Amino acid sequence: MKQTALLETHKLSKSFGGLAAVQDVDFHVNKGEIVSVIGPNGAGKSTFFNVITGLYRPTSGRVFLEGQEITGQRPDAVLSRGIARTFQNIRLFANMTVLENVLVGQHARLRSGILGDIFKGPRTRREEREARHHAYEVMSQFGSRLTGQANTLARNLAYADRRYLEIARAMASNPKLLLLDEPTVGMNPAETEEAMRHIARLQRTGLTIVLIEHKLNVVMSMSDRVVVLDYGQKIAEGTPAEVRSDERVIEAYLGRRQTTAMAAGLATVADRAAPDASYAPDAS
Question: Does the pLDDT of residue 96 top 70, yes or no?
Answer without folding.
Answer: yes
